[in-house]
Amino acid sequence: MGLTIFQPINLPPSFFTLGFYAQPNNRLLFGWVLAARDVSGNSLRPPVGYIQVINTTSMNINQDGAAYFWQPLCPDGYQAVGLYVTTSPLKPSLSQESISCVRSDLTEQSETDTWVWGTNEMTLSSLRPANRGTEATGVHTGTFSCQPLNVPPPPPLFCLKNTKFDLSSMPSHNQTSVLFQSYSPWIYLHPDEDFLPSSVNWFFCNGALLFQKGNESNPVPVQPDGSNLPQGGSDDGLFWLDYPVDKNAKEWVKRGDLGNTKVYLHIKPMFGGTFTDIVVWIFYPFNGNARLKFLFIKSLWLGDIGEHIGDWEHITLRISNFNGELWRAYFSEHSGGTLVEACDLEFQGGNKLVSYSSLHGHAMFSRPGLVLQGDDGNGIRNDMARSDKFFDAGVAYELVAGPGIEEPPWLNYFRKWGPFVRHDIQKNLDGIAKSLPGLLRKKFRKLINKIPREVLEEDGPTGPKVKRSWTADD
């Protein structure tokens, strides 16, 4: 695959380099690195020396020329933010035009972000602020680290800090709508999907009930805007939502309604206000049962295992406040997710990204196909494919949270969106195991033990605002 390292050149007057940029060769040039200007007179200083971190002269790799990786040694009270790379063993110049160190109070700790390239002797990774969230001040600088293997690590590199963090660089509500209309995802459901998304209002208006512990026989219909839901508190098990009692009405609600689907937007400042996250929340009234791939059995239905009432999924659009460009997108997948560079996304109808919802489980993916949640080619199936069941999230959406946005009552309902149902999971699994040849039963049980409990239990989820990512980074 290989990599290419880029040196910032043709900087505007009075701006200085903080580090080089690196990316793998299997993608088009897509990236950036920040430069800095010293407005106070003592924010930047030239290095006092360099450490050679490693070089590639003796590595058994194809290369256009050897690369020498240098880490600046900074004056007391200053930190290095990036590396300098040369094609000769001569140390770089100590002039500020080569690279600058940043005053310590204008920096924060950084950590590795994404893997860029590596050999059995070294690893290159992009850097990000170690502390991330809606109130964190660390700024993603665009530089990278170089870690030699089997030797002591070099001194740490730092990221920039926004010491005057406010929301002035965030887009206005109108600008947010324009950005979302530009990048809003097309979401494709699997052709065999039985359980469609809907709006929260549709779910409430079609008979959703609020249950209270100790008074289960007297459920209360939920108001269309959720105004009679308990507000705040915690997920204490005292309240939960469920379907209408009537069997036909229950089946109707369970299936959702694609024509009445709406997505809900949470606007978040990230990286010290230099980026805006538009978090796109999608509600499904029901999460269907799981299927398993096990050895030669391509698709094994697991009965009611994996089912639960209420299902919240999300996609995050990370947009630069410097230029309004989409930088990355995050796709939620069960208890985790995947962050994808914009250059690696699929687009449709201009700049609108494409997302695929897995069959029954509704995990979000950037590509169609099969993704297994397991090991050695076995595990829970996530099947994604294009179909005539799809929607453009930009057609029906609502801003529900963010700076200056009035939140709807249902967003501050912190209890479960579905009941906890205790299935005899072991009995179900034993029944499946007994249908297998004796030699396969032990392997089957071993595989099941590796599956997360949230996949195996029927337990309604909490709403978006209770998720860890609400104020943190995805």
Describe this structure in words.
This is Vacuolar protein sorting-associated protein 62. Pfam families: Vps62 (PF06101). By secondary structure, the chain is mostly beta strands. The protein folds into two domains: 3-161, no CATH class; 173-470, no CATH class. Helices cover 11% and strands 36% of the residues. It is built from six helices and 35 strands. The strands form ten sheets. It has a six-stranded mixed β-sheet, with helices on one face. A five-stranded antiparallel β-sheet has the order 13-15-11-12-14, with no helix packed on it. Strands 16, 27, 28, 29 and 32 form a five-stranded mixed β-sheet that branches. Strand 17 (209-212) and strand 18 (220-221) form a beta hairpin. The chain is globular and about 80 Å long. The protein starts with a strand and ends in a 15-residue tail after the last strand.
**Structural class by SSE content:** mainly beta
What is the general shape?
globular
Order of strands, main sheet, comes to 26-25-24-21-20-33
Helix content: 10-25%
Mean pLDDT, as a whole number? 93
Rounded to an integer in angstroms, the radius of gyration calculated over CA atoms is 26 Å
Unreliable stretches (pLDDT < 50, length at least 5) are: none
Strand content: 35-45%
| Main sheet characteristics | 6 strands, mixed
Q: Kindly, what is the distance between the CA atoms of the first and last residues, rounded to a whole number of angstroms?
A: 28 Å
Number of helices: 6
Number of strands: 35
Number of separate structural domains? 2
> For this entry, what is the oligomeric state of its chains?
single chain
